[in-house]
C-alpha cells in the first residue's frame, strides 16, 4: 500500500524519497456527526485538509481534535478569508483611475479655485486679474493683470487687448492667436479679481470711499453699505456724477423723498465709475 503511494508520488514529481511526508488534500466535513450542522447536510461546510500518513499519526490526531472541537471557528475563518479576498479584488477594480478628458472647448470656468463669478454684463477692465489657462500646456498658462492701456501680455502672443471685452470674447481672441503656435488650443479664461468695477461715495457719509460693484446696486443700497448719511448732511441734495461717452453728467437724488417712498425713480442703478456726492 505504501509502496504504491510512494511510487505514484515520485511519478508526479512531488517527492524523490521513499514516502512523501504528506498525502494529497482530501475533503473533510468537521461536523459530519453530531450537532445541528450534521442534522442539516446543506449547512455542512467542507474544507480541504491534508491526509497525514500513518494510522496513529500525531498530526492526524491533532487535526481531528481541532476539527471536532473548533470546527465552527475553522469554517468562520475560511469564510472571513474569502470575504477579504473578494474585497481586495473589488477595491483594486474601484481604484482604477478614470480616463481624463479635456474640458469642452471654449468653456469659461468661473468656479476654479481662486476664481469668481462675474456679475451680469461684466466686461474686463483695467486692474482686473485674469487666469488664461491652456489645456495641458503649462508654459502658456499664466495669471495676468489688465494694464491701464487695457492690454495683457501672454507668452508667444505678446500684447492682447482685454479691456472692453467679455471673458468669452477674450477667450475667442486668444484661441485664434494661439492657433498660430499651438495645434488645436483649448483656452479657458478665469476671472480671479474684479478691480475695475467700483463706485465711489464721498461727503457727509459715515464711511466714504470706493466700493466694489459686484452686483446690481442702487443709490440707496450704496448709502446703506457706506453707513448712511450723517446727521447734518444735506440728504435732499445728493448728486451722482457719471461719465457717458466722454461727457460728464450730474444726476440729482433726494434721499428724504426716496426714504419716504416718494419719487422712487430717482433711486437709479449705479454703473462702474459713478461717484455719489453727499453734501
Structural account:
A hairpin with a 2-residue loop joins strand 10 and strand 11 (247-253). The model is unreliable at 1-49 and 100-112 (pLDDT under 50). The protein has 6 helices and 12 strands. It has helices at residues 2-11, 35-39, 58-94, 167-178, 219-225, 255-259; strands at residues 23-28, 47-51, 129-134, 142-145, 151-154, 158-161, 187-193, 198-203, 209-212, 238-244, 247-253, 275-278. The N and C termini lie far apart (120 Å). The strands form 4 sheets. Strands 9-8-12-10-11 form a 5-stranded mixed beta sheet, with helices on one face. A 3-stranded antiparallel beta sheet has the order 4-3-7, covered by helices on one side. Helices cover 27% and strands 23% of the residues. The chain folds into 3 domains: 2-94, no CATH class; 101-195, wza like fold (2-Layer Sandwich), CATH 3.30.1950; 198-278, Outer membrane lipoprotein wza domain like (Outer membrane lipoprotein wza fold like, Roll), CATH 3.10.560. It has 279 residues and is of the alpha+beta class.
